[in-house]
């Protein structure tokens, strides 16, 4: 007898650059594997606009609780202090989760335990960088040093309270300027919306204590770039990713949206290449 596979029901929380990009892709290219059953955004109008644009009928858009109830897999793409509790809610109800706000998960090993306890997946896409696959493999041996240099345009740092406190006047920056040089935990704390990649590398390598992060800006920078250097028993890795930013959110690289879509595709098709 032929087995008919049911489409995976997807709920998206956060209808901004990433959530919107994933929803459009599901609608156009993943219809065979996935069905959008929920869109939720704290700004109701954003979910509604997306629902209308994609002509989605019967898609839940009003409450997180019912979105979780109606989906098999929840995609978290919010910029919020409640990210952790949103992910927890889904895992506790045995939903698989793709999480984008990786910076928020760095100090939350409990969420991975909740996922294991409830036999569900907590998937973290590689985001805006290249080389996470190799870093995970290298982590099976000894990693001696990791260095991440992130370069972003000035606009990415508007309204950052830490920079104000440190006396940086973005308008007065004329050339290449190092805004931060230090450890991952501090970096994620003070640049929560700019440096998810640092958290992804830290989690993938399990070598947070060997890692240093530099954040550099300049009025000449137009795009985001991330340079990763890793030294370990395996040898050395250097990757440089030069990203085009999303028009909807200049803090977010387009590659991050694509990496989330690819994670979803692989999960639907049960085929994991280079992960
Ligand atoms: N993993 C990576 O490499 C990577 C790369 C870029 C961005 N990110 C992260 O992904 C997340 C989404 O990024 P984005 O560019 O789509 O942001 P965005 O600002 O474009 O969209 C975020 C959306 O979340 C909504 N929102 C905020 N709080 C909410 C809540 N409590 N419940 C529901 N909706 C809420 C906002 O209204 C907004 O529409 C951010 O946390 C960002 O830091 C991760």
List the helices and strands and how they pair.
Layout: E1 8-13, H1 17-29, E2 34-40, H2 44-53, H3 64-70, E3 73-76, H4 83-92, E4 96-99, H5 109-117, E5 122-123, H6 132-138, E6 143-153, H7 161-165, E7 177-182, H8 184-190, H9 196-205, E8 211-218, E9 224-232, E10 235-243, E11 245-246, E12 249-253, H10 254-269
Residues 13-19, 40-43, 46, 77-80, 82, 100-102, 127-128, 193, 196-197, 200, 248-249, 252, 256 line the site of nicotinamide-adenine-dinucleotide (NAD).
Please characterize this protein's 3D structure.
By secondary structure, the protein is an alpha/beta fold. The chain has 2 domains: 8-124 and 255-269, NAD(P)-binding Rossmann-like Domain (Rossmann fold), CATH 3.40.50.720; 132-243, Dihydrodipicolinate Reductase, domain 2 (2-Layer Sandwich). Helix content is 34%, strand content 27%. The chain is built from 10 helices and 12 strands. It has helices at 17-29, 44-53, 64-70, 83-92, 109-117, 132-138, 161-165, 184-190, 196-205, 254-269; strands spanning 8-13, 34-40, 73-76, 96-99, 122-123, 143-153, 177-182, 211-218, 224-232, 235-243, 245-246, 249-253. It has a 5-stranded parallel beta sheet with strand order 2-1-3-4-5, with helices on both faces. The longest helix has 16 residues, at 254-269. The radius of gyration is 19 Å and the shape is globular. The model has no long low-confidence stretch (mean pLDDT 93). The structure holds nicotinamide-adenine-dinucleotide (NAD). Nicotinamide-adenine-dinucleotide is lined by residues 13-19, 40-43, 46, 77-80, 82, 100-102, 127-128, 193, 196-197, 200, 248-249, 252, 256.
């Amino acid at each position: 007898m032929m087995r008919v596979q049911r489409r995976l029901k997807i709920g998206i929380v956060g209808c901004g650059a990433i959530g919107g990009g994933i929803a459009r892709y599901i609608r156009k290219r993943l219809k065979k594997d996935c069905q959008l059953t929920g869109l939720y955004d704290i700004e109701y109008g954003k979910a509604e606009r997306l629902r209308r644009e994609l002509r989605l009928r019967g898609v839940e858009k009003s409450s997180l609780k019912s979105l979780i109830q109606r989906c098999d897999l929840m995609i978290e793409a919010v910029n919020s202090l409640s990210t952790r509790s949103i992910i927890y809610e889904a895992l506790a109800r045995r939903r698989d989760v793709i999480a984008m706000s990786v910076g928020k998960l760095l100090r939350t090993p409990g969420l991975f335990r909740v996922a294991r306890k409830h036999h569900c997946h907590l998937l973290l896409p590689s985001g805006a960088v290249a080389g996470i696959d190799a870093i995970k493999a290298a982590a099976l041996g000894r990693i001696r040093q990791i260095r991440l240099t992130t370069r972003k345009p000035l606009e990415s740092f508007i309204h950052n309270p830490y920079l104000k406190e440190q006396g940086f006047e973005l308008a007065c920056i004329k050339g290449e300027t190092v805004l931060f040089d230090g450890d991952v935990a501090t970096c994620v704390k003070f640049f929560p919306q700019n440096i998810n990649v640092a958290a992804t590398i830290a989690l993938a390598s399990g070598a947070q204590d060997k890692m240093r992060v530099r954040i550099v800006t300049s009025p000449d920078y137009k795009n985001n770039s991330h340079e990763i250097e890793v030294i370990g028993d395996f040898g050395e890795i250097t990757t440089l990713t030069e990203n085009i930013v999303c028009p909807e959110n200049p803090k977010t690289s387009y590659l991050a949206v694509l990496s989330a879509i690819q994670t979803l595709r692989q999960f639907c098709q049960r085929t994991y290449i280079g992960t």
